[in-house]
Structures are given as C-alpha cells and as structure tokens.
Design goal:
5-stranded mixed sheet; 9 helices; 38% helix
C-alpha cells in the first residue's frame, strides 16, 4: 500500500469519525433537551401563560385565592329606589330588582319606659343595617285538579249528557311525578354545577325526600330524549350553515360500553361556532373511537373553514372542509422549545420570537 492510498484512507476515516462525533453531539443535545423538558413536566408548572393570558381559577383553593382579609365589606346605598354597592369594587354587585324584606325591631311594651323618669318612650328614629339573605331550595307537591263539567239540563231532559274537562298542561314525563322545575334543577346541579347524582340524592334525603339516583337518572335520560334532542337537532342544523367552525376531541372512559373494556378509551367530539357569530352554538358528539369519519358524518352539509388542532384525521375530510390550524397549538410547540433550551440561550431564540409573535396575535385578537 503506497502512502497516497494510506493517506486517503486515514482522511476518510477522519471524516467518518468527525461525522460520528457530530451525530453523537446532536444526540446528546437531544437527550439534554428531552431531560429538561421531562424535568419541567414533572416538577415545573404546566402553564403556558404569558403577559396576555387570562388567569384561571383553581377550583380547590378558589376561596383562599379570591379572599382578601383587608378588603372592607361592600356597602349598599339607595339609588333611585334600588340598592347598589358603592363603586369600591367591580366584583360585588346586587341586582336592582332584588326584593327587600324589612324586619322591625322594637322594645317590648313593658320596656318602653324612660329609665330615668319612668314616662313612656317614643320612637325618635331608626338605625338600619342590611344583609344578603339566601333561601335554600324548597320543595313542595303540586296537585293538578282538573274540573269536570256537565250540563244539568241535559241530565234531566236528554239521554246523553256532554262532559267537558278543563285543560291541564301535559306532564313532562307521562305517569311520573317529575315536574319541569325538578328535572331542570337536577340537570343544572349535575351539568352546570358538577354535582353528581349520588350527592344530590343525599341532599334530597336530608330534606326528607327519598329520591333515588336511579329515578333521577331515568328522568334525565327521558327528558333529554323527549325535550332536548329536538333542540339539539335544530342547533346542529344551524351549526352546519356557518362558514367557520371549530372542532376538537378528547378522551374519556365509559363504563360498560358495548364491546369495550373500562380501560379502553372513547372520545367526546366537540363542534362550535366561531367568534364571527352573535349566538354561539356548542355541541358534543360521543363516539367510541377517533376515526375521521365521525366529523364528516356529524358536519354533513358543512362548507367552509374548520379550525382544528394538528390531528391528521381532519385532513382526510372532503374538499368542502378547509382545515385551518390552531395558533394555540402552534404556540405550545414554541413554549416547549423554550423549555428545552438553557436559560441563557432563550432570549433572541427562534422559539422566543415565535412565542412572542403568537402573543401579539392573541393581544390583537382580544382588542378586536
């Protein structure tokens, strides 16, 4: 082997070693980034908030966060026969049409005598203070009595007597003692206030009303089918007539789902109108999986822009669907890129530029 061949081999080997070193350095850098990101996910805050983000409430310490022991109690002042709080804080407000209950406090008759001379006392004025009184839910039985009419003359003179009954509103569930008010209360407690039926059952029991969660479940399902499904269908028809919609899906576990174990994931799909409408529509659609056929079937007849995350299933939709990306998801990638960078390298980085660009977009959006 001549020197030239040996030199070429050494040079090639040197290049290969340098390439390997570069590859290993990139790999080490990647592992360092993943380590920092995993460390942040495990021990750091999961928030992606910036100077333009809206602060969210923690449900567990909401009272402690919102309380201020040094803040004075709001005062009520009479303004044109209405009682309102003085402009000390914008958070405490009472509706102007709130009814007022006046409780008179007077001395007993045997104490209405002057402590010095014994003569009768008279009322020279009154001092007052005001409280906000809250009355818990009350329950009562509503008995519908339907008047039945007949004709006295026909009873005496004819072989047929007409019977006329007064009109009575149809029950919300035939053969049930459920009322629209009771069902609406149970639905609001469960779906708005997030109070499960077993806790509502306990609350009813404390009131002396033995109303089981099974009965409440039957009421909810029946009324949802009979009364809310037509409203849902009408809203769905209006939804697909819009030009811009938002779509998303999230996992959930469903017990005793046909053909699935409790550990397998199901999906709740959400579709809603965008900010270009005065009346928002938000609809949910439960499906056992994440196949792209579900949004196609649900949004049948829709033509326009569908705003979604990066899930590739949306891009399999027909050409009538113009899928557009979500800036919040884009910003999350910039935020994750920042978290894997050493702190000294973050300012001026592409990730910081991208994140601030998104923040500026969000700020302008709120202004508009």
């Amino acid at each position: 082997m001549d020197n030239l061949t040996k030199t070429n081999e050494l040079a090639a080997e040197n290049v290969a070693l340098k390439n390997r070193i570069t590859e290993l350095e990139s790999l080490v850098k990647y592992y360092e980034e993943q380590f920092r990101l995993n460390k942040h996910k495990q021990f750091g805050s999961s928030s992606e908030k910036s100077e333009y983000d809206v602060e969210q409430i923690n449900l567990f310490d909401e009272a402690e966060v919102a309380a201020d022991a040094n803040a004075p109690e709001p005062e009520l002042v009479e303004i044109e026969k209405h009682y309102r709080k003085r402009r000390r804080s914008a958070s405490d407000r009472l509706p102007p049409d709130l009814p007022i209950e006046i409780v008179e406090h007077e001395l007993p008759a045997d104490e209405q005598a002057c402590p010095d001379c014994g003569e009768a006392l008279h009322i020279m004025g009154r001092e007052s203070r005001r409280e906000l009184k809250i009355i818990p839910a009350q329950a009562k039985i509503v008995e519908h009595r339907q008047a039945v009419y007949s004709c006295r003359s026909c009873e005496k003179n004819n072989d047929h007597t007409p019977i006329v009954k007064a009109s009575v509103p149809e029950p919300v569930i035939k053969g049930s003692f459920a009322s629209p008010e009771s069902v609406a209360h149970i639905m609001t407690q469960k779906f708005v206030m997030s109070i499960p039926l077993y806790r509502q059952e306990q609350e009813w029991n404390r009131l002396g009303i033995m109303l089981s969660r099974q009965t409440m479940s039957n009421w909810l399902i029946r009324c949802a089918s009979d009364w809310l499904k037509p409203v849902y269908d009408r809203l769905k028809k209006l939804l697909v007539e819009r030009d811009v919609l938002h779509g998303d899906e999230t996992t959930l576990q469903v017990l005793r789902a046909p053909g699935k174990s409790a550990q397998q994931k199901s999906y709740m799909w959400l579709y809603r109108t965008s900010g270009d409408t005065d009346k928002s529509i938000v609809l949910y659609d439960y499906q056992p999986n994440r196949k792209w056929e579900h949004p196609e079937a649900f949004l049948k007849g829709f033509k326009g822009y569908l705003h979604a995350d990066g899930y590739e299933g949306y891009h399999n939709l027909p050409d009538d669907f113009i899928v557009v990306g979500c800036w919040a998801h884009m910003r999350r990638k910039f935020d994750e890129a920042l978290k894997v960078l050493p702190e000294k390298d973050r300012e001026g980085s592409g990730a910081m530029v991208g994140k601030r660009y998104c923040d500026q977009l969000f700020r302008h959006e709120r202004e508009l």
